[in-house]
Design brief:
Blueprint lengths: L29 H4 L11 E2 L3 H7 L14 E2 L1 E4 L17 E5 L4 E6 L4 E9 L13 E5 L2 E5 L9 E4 L5 E5 L4 E13 L2 E8 L14 E6 L6 E6 L3 E6 L9 E6 L14 E6 L10 E5 L4 E4 L8 E3 H15 L5 H17 L14 E3 L8 E3 L7 E2 L5 H6 L6 E9 L2 E8 L3 E7 L7 E3 L4 E4 L5 E9 L20 H8 L7 E8 L12 E4 L6 E6 L2 E6 L16 E7 L10 E8 L5 E7 L4 E5 L31 H5 L9 H5 L6 H86 L11 H37 L23 H38 L1
Parallel strand pairs: 8-12, 16-29, 23-30
Antiparallel strand pairs: 1-2, 3-7, 4-5, 5-6, 6-7, 6-8, 9-10, 10-11, 11-12, 13-14, 14-15, 15-16, 17-18, 18-19, 20-21, 22-27, 24-25, 25-26, 26-30, 28-29, 31-32, 32-33, 33-34, 35-36, 36-37
Subcellular location: Nucleus, Nuclear pore complex
Pfam family, one: Nup88
GO molecular function: structural constituent of nuclear pore
Length: about 850
């Protein structure tokens, strides 16, 4: 992992800010880009010009404010921004949201009860390299957006819609919407914005009963957000109509009344929207506490925009394969899907007149006599020879997190368990819409017959587990026609197990809290935040996108560690992923203590495995290079001169001319071969003396270090001997204690049998998971009963079920519907109480046996 260096600002007047480059918005389909009208204000001056944004907002300004004086912005590292040094270690939750269009970060401040709006820029590392390491910078001063009235609850999560105009403030039992561009008043950098509560009649005001499990904006609409509550109801709200009553309401019944074996099977945990893949864009995936996954399809916000090309593709697929089948069930489901498409998107029937439009708006529609099926639980398909392995490879604890990702041709579902395990599955088939025939939908229409809101009870298909036989891998792909008909038979798609990732978190008395986040650039990569830090998980095997690749387990790389892995509570209260303009990802996290950190994922490379060459020679077999400064030529000596024969020299006399000449010649040869060699040897020895001196000093230092090591070993040897003696004494003491333990009456107790172990595991599961789920269900039912008892007889507000209203006046059956719902709720509560009493008796009996 490398750092992006921040270049210095170019030469410019002191009053002008340095140049900026905004981070691009993540890749979104055309349906989401079309509805954005909010301009991108300049980040060079703060506070940013929200008056321009408010002028383009769909909602008018509530009060005119005087023009503000703008001051030049100072850019500091994001982690050093004053907004993140505000609490001095005070906790309390919060949250963060990222506006990719305007390059702004929203961070909730629980101490100020407001949201900091911080302008962010990514410095270009290629302009100039000044040695700095900061890449993500924030503007100072920043604005703080305050709600109009006191919220009265602690905000645990914030969410921003796609155009950056509305901020959703989520609490454990309450919801509110803060309109960013609708200013009530302002004082310097503090802006008071209009705030409206959400579903105040449905959610209790005393923070008791129904809990808000998850709330998030719909990816295909700027005005719609969904809320999943603990009473197993999925609600879709519309900002443009009414925040007190939901636009669409789905009562989830995963198990038929009277057939509930585990309370966790009826307690939802989280949900996730589908992505741009056929019917996945109209699907909502819902996770329950026992790990079961259900699907609602189709779910479309009224007035949302979708790509006409994608809708036409789905429409042609249904007409080509569904209607031509010989199976009557396939034809029936295909007719329902075609009727829904034609009514929801009437542009399909008028293509000749509106061919220029690229987007199609969803019209309000719901079948009167049918309701959506809660598809699931999605079963897992496995090979016949691996069925036993698939049954045993289950995760422990309860499900705590959920995420959907579309990677190529694969739809990947990731489930986080409280035991620190991540379960990765892929859809083995396409999702198709399903309806329960004969179960009517409650509609609320206006005087013109236009649908205003919808409510329905979504029962699961009891025959779905039997449909797994038709999805064996051995038969998949062998007969294309039979596989296509199996899709439209009304069965839920199976899941293909990809991997189970164990994060090796320590076991705690309560389940760990794990949060999952998608990578904005790499769909095969996601992040998991837990009490021990932040991990990155990368999938290396996608069965449908890359079928030729071998099955490779995913890789896990820790990015941050807290050093306090024993806690089960998360250390992050806010986390966003930013895709910058250079193809890298910036991870911005806010801890529960109010600190901010930035991790740059530039140049992230996974470590390559260590490879050993067995055939290579050992280090001992390689001849070490020659050391020293004396050459081999000098050591070998001078080459001896070629002397003439001695007989010719005897005839010469020293006084003769020939003798003198010969003597002079030999003197010259001696000088060339011996005197010059001696001079070279002298120079080499003189230079070699420094080398020998250095070597001697080095050897002397090493010798002194060895002596010191020997002295330290001698001093430690006594301590080691003492520790060994102490260990022997402890060992003898432990042996004596073991012998004394053998004399106890419980020493001869036999180990638990397999049936007893299974029963003990069932009791532990009931104590850890089932009791919490049962308390949550009872609290939700109690809150709903109180709401029914407090409302007037003729009123419809807060009933939770919207009644059918004809265009003309007619008879009303409000009291009958309320009584039927109350009776069904009481029946469910009585069944749960009976099961609870039975399990409590078993626990009491087991505890008495243990005491005896």
């Amino acid at each position: 992992m490398t750092r992006i260096t921040a270049p210095p600002p170019p030469s410019s007047p002191p009053e002008s800010p340095p140049p900026i480059r905004h981070s691009p918005a993540p890749a979104t389909p055309p349906s989401r880009r079309r509805g954005r009208h909010s301009p991108s204000p300049s980040l060079a001056l703060t506070p940013s010009s929200a008056s321009t944004s408010a002028a383009t907002s769909s909602r008018p300004k509530l009060r005119s404010t005087p023009k503000r004086s703008y001051t030049p912005a100072q850019w500091v590292p994001l982690s050093s921004h004053p907004a993140f040094s505000r609490r001095d270690g005070e906790g309390g939750g919060g949250g963060a949201a990222w506006d990719a269009t305007a390059s702004r970060l929203y961070a909730w401040d629980p101490s100020a009860c407001g949201a900091h709006r911080i302008g962010v820029r990514i410095r270009d590392p290629e302009v100039e390299n000044d040695g700095g390491e900061v890449a993500v910078e924030a503007a100072v001063p920043s604005e703080i957006l305050m709600p109009e009235t006191d919220l009265g609850y602690v905000v645990t999560h914030v969410s921003l819609n796609t155009d950056g105009s509305s901020l959703l403030l989520v609490g454990s039992h309450h919801l509110s919407v803060l309109y960013v561009h609708e200013r009530v008043s302002e004082d310097g950098d503090t802006i008071i914005c209009r705030t409206a509560p959400v579903a105040s009649q449905i959610l209790p005001s005393n923070s008791d009963g129904i809990k808000v499990l998850q709330a998030s904006w719909h990816p295909f609409s700027n005005n719609h957000f969904a809320v999943l509550t603990s009473d197993a109801v999925f609600r879709l709200f519309d900002l443009s109509s009414d925040l007190e009553q939901p636009e669409q309401e789905f009562y989830l019944q995963p198990i038929l009344p009277g057939k509930c074996q585990n309370a966790s099977a009826i307690c939802p945990v989280a949900f996730s929207y589908g992505s741009d893949h056929l019917w996945d864009r109209f699907s909502v995936f819902i996770l329950f506490s026992d790990g079961s996954i259900f699907v609602l399809c189709p779910v479309v916000p009224f007035g949302s925009d979708y790509s006409k090309k994608h809708i036409q593709e789905i429409y042609e697929d249904v007409n080509a394969f569904g209607l031509k089948s010989s199976n009557p069930n396939v034809v029936t489901n295909s007719h329902l899907a075609i009727a829904w498409l034609e009514a929801t998107f009437p542009d399909l029937l008028h293509q000749s007149t509106e061919t220029s439009l690229l987007m199609s708006k969803a019209h309000p529609y719901a079948p009167v006599d049918d309701s959506l099926t809660l598809q699931g639980p999605l079963c897992r398909v496995c090979e016949e020879n691996n069925e036993s392995e698939g049954k045993t490879s289950t995760c422990e604890g309860k499900a705590v997190g959920f995420m959907y990702s579309s990677a190529g041709k694969d739809s990947v579902l990731v489930t986080a368990w409280g035991s620190g395990q991540l379960q990765v599955d892929a859809l083995a088939d396409e999702i198709q819409p399903q309806w329960n025939i004969g179960i009517p939908t409650r509609l609320n229409v206006d005087s013109h017959g236009k649908i205003k809101s919808v409510a329905m009870i979504c029962d699961s298909n009891s025959q779905d587990p039997l449909a797994l036989r038709s999805h064996r891998p051995s038969s998949m792909g062998s007969n294309v026609k039979s596989n296509i008909e199996a899709v439209w038979m009304g069965h839920s798609p199976p899941l293909l197990r990809l991997a189970i990732v164990d994060l090796a978190l320590p076991k705690t008395p309560s389940d760990s809290s794990l949060s999952l986040f998608l990578d904005p650039l790499v769909p095969e990569r996601f992040y998991c935040a837990h009490g021990g830090g932040l991990d990155m998980v990368t999938l290396h095997f996608l069965p449908f996108s890359y079928p030729e690749m071998a099955s490779t387990p995913p890789s896990v790389h820790p990015i941050l560690t807290t050093g306090n892995s024993e806690t089960s509570s998360p250390f992050l209260c806010g986390f966003v992923t930013i895709a910058d303009a250079y193809g890298h990802v910036q991870l911005v996290g806010i801890t529960c203590l109010g600190e901010c950190f930035v991790v740059e994922m530039k140049g992230w490379k996974e470590p390559t495995p260590l490879q050993l060459d067995i055939d290579s020679k050992s280090i001992k077999d390689v001849e070490p290079p020659a050391t020293g400064m004396i050459s081999k030529e000098l050591i070998a000596g001078p080459d001896p001169p070629i002397l003439p024969s001695s007989s010719s020299l005897k005839s010469l006399t020293p006084d003769s001319i020939e003798g003198k000449s010969t003597l002079h010649h030999y003197i010259k040869v001696f000088h060339e071969y011996y005197v010059e060699y001696g001079h070279k040897v002298f120079i080499e020895l003189k230079e070699h003396a420094d080398y020998v001196k250095t070597e001697l000093e080095d050897k002397q230092k090493r010798l002194e270090a060895v002596k010191k090591s020997l002295l330290s070993i001698e001093t430690k040897d006594q301590d080691i001997n003492k520790r060994i003696d102490r260990a022997f004494k402890v060992y003898e003491l432990l042996e004596k204690r073991i012998d004394s333990f053998k004399m106890l009456p419980a020493a001869n107790k036999k180990p638990l049998s397999q049936a007893e172990q299974e029963f003990k595991a069932q009791l532990d599961r009931f104590a850890d998971v089932e009791l919490d789920a049962l308390r949550s269900s009872i609290a939700a039912l109690s809150a709903r009963m109180k709401r029914f008892a407090q409302q007037p007889v003729g009123g419809t507000a807060g009933t939770g079920v919207i009644l059918w209203q004809a265009p003309k006046a007619g008879r009303s059956h409000i009291s009958e519907s309320q009584m039927s719902l109350l009776k069904s709720s009481l029946e469910k509560l009585s069944i749960l109480n009976e099961e609870n009493n039975l399990k409590l008796r078993l626990i009491d009996h087991e505890l008495k046996n243990k005491e005896q």
